Amino acid sequence: xxxxxxxxxxxxxxxxxxxxxxxxxxxxxxxxxxxxxxxxxxxxxxxxxxxxxxxxxxxxxxxxxxxxxxxxxxxxxxxxxxxxxxxxxxxxxxxxxxxxxxxxxxxxxxxxxxxxxxxxxxxxxxxxxxxxxxxxxxxxxxxxxxxxxxxxxxxxxxxxxxxxxxxxxxxxxxxxxxxxxxxxxxxxxxxxxxxxxxxxx
Length: 201
Known about the structure:
Elements: H1 8-30, H2 36-51, H3 58-95, H4 100-129, H5 134-147, H6 149-168, H7 172-199
């Protein structure tokens, strides 16, 4: 028996293992917390490239992208993800109070947190795709969710679904830890490319 290294089955298995390794690498590099921005932008960079006719080498290109994007992605993370988390925590505080105004404040906090989280995803994808300044990227990231509501919904569905399924069915966490982030980034890469193509000057 002879195994053909160019067979579709072997190629598909190799791609699967690549995405598993990429997922685990992403999780490990997110553990220091301060590196979440750089790890996310690097993940978007290699998956956006791969979504374009499977160009690039996701694993080999990941660390160079991580190093190149570290500065801009970290600043943008502090500008967008940090306040999103603060709003998320504040919503828990407001919802714990029975007063009507507290409930309204909680809803506003949740909406703000979701919007800023979406802007953070757009920012990390822009760092991966463009070489704009931090200021321009921040401005674009805050405008794009409102300018592209349908595609933004698509970008949000993947992480929201993953979190919801993990809460409802805890064993799903194993799937998320194995391929959830890398495959999710690959799926959203097509949406990001579509958005950026529409707005690219």
